[in-house]
Amino acid sequence: MLPDKMEGEGTFAEYYNKVFGNSTYKEKVKPIVDKALGGSLRLFVEKVYEGSYFNRDEGEVVLYVNANLPNGSTLEQMNALVKKMETYLSDFKEIRQFQTAIYSARQANLQIYFTKEVEHSGFPYTLKSNIISKALTLGGGSWGVYGLQDQGFNNDVRESAGSFRVKMYGYNYDELAYWGDRLKEKLLEHRRIKEVIINSEFSWWKDDYSEFYLDLNRERMAKENITAIKIKSSRMLLAHGFLRKVFEIFESYQTSIDMICTSVVGVSVSIDNTKHLNEILDDLKKYGTVTVDKDMCIICVVGDLEWENVGFEAKALDAMRDIPVRMISFGGSNYNISFIIRECDKKQALQSLSDALFNE
Known about the structure:
This protein is of the alpha+beta class. Helix content is 33%, strand content 21%. It has ten helices and eleven strands. It has helices spanning 11-20, 23-37, 39-47, 75-89, 123-138, 173-188, 242-252, 277-284, 312-319, 346-357, and strands at residues 62-68, 95-102, 107-114, 142-147, 153-154, 223-232, 259-262, 266-271, 289-302, 325-329, 336-342. The strands form two sheets. Strands 7-8-6-9-11-10 form a six-stranded antiparallel β-sheet, covered by helices on one side. A five-stranded antiparallel β-sheet has the order 2-3-1-4-5, covered by helices on one side. Helix 4 (75-89) runs antiparallel to helix 5 and helix 9 (312-319) runs antiparallel to helix 10. The protein starts with 10 loop residues before the first helix and ends with a helix.
């Protein structure tokens, strides 16, 4: 890990700089030699820069400058803003170096280090004052200047709702905005509250929150081309194995069942694959009377349907009061109620359910 250059005069220093300071050695030879002979020390020297946590003198004077931009800003805008400050700082020969880090389109930081001759003089304080003046003239964002163990500067223009915040969550932006306005009006009635701000900025550095608008096609919110089959047989009463025989028929023709409902002397199932429908019906007729309804569809109402939660099922059933329902499935899942109706009634059913469950 030889130094790039040897300071001083003399034959040895001149010879050293010629050999180890030329571009050929630095570009082609040095990377190989350092990797072969440097060991872990090489990684430390290369990765830990001057003035970092590991090797900065705790007594060194450092000035910190933070730049912030509002939501919706771009990296190009932040880069242009920081470049103006860098250009300004480059005119001061008393600055040994400054390091810039742009973390995002909204946040950047500069660390300023001084030469040994001036770091404990009055210049850092003068520069701090000058940087504050420059920040005020630059505009376009918020600036913070800290260091030197005195009071820092900050012209943050971001609005804040104070130390008290109410978070509201939901899927309907219009409803959230409505209740937010209602709450704001109520709070402003209190004589100690001067201002209430409504926004979506939960985090300082997070970009604008997005609003998603879902325009649902209600006619496609149901499974179509369903065939409902009902098998009615007195032999099913108190009999063992009847359902197994019915299911074995569908299994033999590799036809899956979508829904199933049972009663004391009958069972209704629905399928969406009618490739072997005639063969299935012929086999089922051996066990009872078979009824077939075609051109049906399945509508599922999804929600928190734990059986202890009362009221939701009643609303769904009430919404279907004017629509002929072929089958109802409930209890097999904690999350949905399924209805089988005629395809011609699908649009009316979906609208009725939407009005009853979501538009109250």
